[in-house]
């Protein structure tokens, strides 16, 4: 196993059971540890002191649902001074599946994206998408083929006979 190059603490509100369920799939160059497992006293600290303590304990930063800290100058000053890596999950804290999903999408390659010698903030804000009409993709395929979408539809459409023929016997 690769020695972790990036050590990040997870704040007390981050859904650890979901992280633990996915641990075998996490990048091996990132070590994620809940702050209570680092030192139970960390949970009682304000964010400014938390960043200082994490730096003193050899941690590179924090993963948190408290993105609002980024608007508080005293807390941002601690991020700047400690050159912390902050992954702040915005507006997903009450939905643990979405919060962990956003984090899992961000983790691969994270160490390589860091700007060395600076505080690095990754503000994650995943917005739910509206569905697209599948016909749009057929029309795009028709355009690439130089055909009219209705003409392509006639060539490739699923017939009623196909729909009525059992696929799995």
What does this structure look like?
The protein has 169 residues and is an alpha/beta fold. It has a single domain, classed as Rossmann fold. It is 41% helix and 14% strand. It contains nine helices and five strands, in the order βαβααβαβααβααα. Strands 2-1-3-4-5 form a five-stranded parallel β-sheet, sandwiched between helices. Helix 3 (47-56) runs parallel beside helix 4 (73-82) and helix 7 crosses helix 8. It is elongated, with a radius of gyration of 23 Å.
Total domain count: 1
Strand content: 5-15%
Oligomer: single chain
Choose one word for the global shape: elongated
Write down the overall mean pLDDT: 92
Please tally the β strands and state the result.
5
Taking all Cα atoms into account, the compactness measure Rg is: 23 Å
Sheet with the most strands: spatial strand order: 2-1-3-4-5
Largest sheet composition: 5 strands, parallel
* Helix residue percentage: 40-55%
> N-to-C terminal Cα separation, in Å?
46 Å
* Low-confidence sequence ranges: none
Structural class computed from helices and strand pairing: alpha/beta
CATH architecture: 3-Layer(aba) Sandwich
SSE run: EHEHHEHEHHEHHH
CATH topology: Rossmann fold
How do the strands and helices of this protein lay out in sequence?
Elements: E1 6-10, H1 16-21, E2 30-34, H2 35-38, H3 47-56, E3 61-64, H4 73-82, E4 85-89, H5 96-106, H6 110-113, E5 120-124, H7 134-145, H8 149-156, H9 160-164
Parallel strand pairs: 1-2, 1-3, 3-4, 4-5
């Amino acid at each position: 196993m690769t020695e972790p190059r990036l050590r990040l603490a997870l704040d007390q509100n981050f859904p650890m059971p979901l992280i633990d369920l996915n641990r075998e799939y996490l990048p091996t160059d990132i070590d994620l540890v809940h702050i209570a497992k680092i030192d139970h006293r960390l949970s009682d600290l304000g964010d400014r002191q938390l960043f200082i303590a994490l730096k003193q304990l050899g941690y590179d930063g924090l993963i948190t649902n408290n993105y609002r800290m980024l608007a508080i100058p005293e807390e941002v000053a601690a991020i700047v001074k400690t050159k912390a890596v902050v992954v702040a999950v915005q507006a997903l804290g009450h939905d643990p599946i979405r919060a962990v999903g956003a984090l899992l999408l961000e983790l691969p390659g994270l160490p390589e994206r860091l700007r060395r010698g600076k505080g690095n903030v990754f503000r994650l804000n995943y917005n739910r998408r509206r569905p697209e009409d599948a016909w749009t993709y057929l029309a795009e395929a028709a355009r690439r083929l130089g055909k009219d979408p209705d003409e392509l539809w006639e060539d490739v459409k699923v017939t009623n006979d196909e729909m009525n023929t059992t696929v799995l016997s």
